[in-house]
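May I ask you to review the protein record following this short note?
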Amino acid sequence: MMSRDFPLSPVFTLDREACILILISNETAVVKPMSTTGSSVDDAADTDHPEATARPEVAAHQTRVRVRFPEADQQGIVHHSVYLHYFELGRTEMLRDFGLPYTKLEKQGTHLVVTETKLRFIRSAYYDDVLLVKTHVDRLSRVRIYLSYEVLREQSQAIVCAGSTTLAALDSSGKPTALPSELRQLLGVRARSQGG
């Protein structure tokens, strides 16, 4: 079982060599050296687990949350389903902080629905822990927003859970529609990659 808490970033230095941490499962991780240029991870990238690969340095939006009693099971551990609520909190607070709350989008006739979600549980969080939800805009398409998340302990910066969601824009009748230009502009400058 993996007991070492790794740094927040999957890219770190080990014995002065840049390395990448590839999470294989909740209990297994692989550490591989990065390329000598540091610009890519070469064969170290695990394409089945994009949340565990190196990412460009784009500032993530951070939302602070304290684990409440009803979010934990009998052992005081955060229930796995709660992380989806934390992801939602992260993205709605991100939009609000960017000046475009979800309620404004709805009034304009655009509804964002989750079409896909992925979760990767790395270690447990407990009742009364203070967590940070880091929300990254990975990319945008004409209709979709691709977001990734890291939930980490505020004190130690240890990642608890990582994952992603894909959201699609629908109009008031429930049909796919283009993302509003204001939303595209706000998120586009924060996206890790363009196009898609």
Observations:
- Residues 85 and 179 are 23 Å apart (CA to CA).
- The longest helix spans residues 82-97.
- Residues 11-52 form one domain.
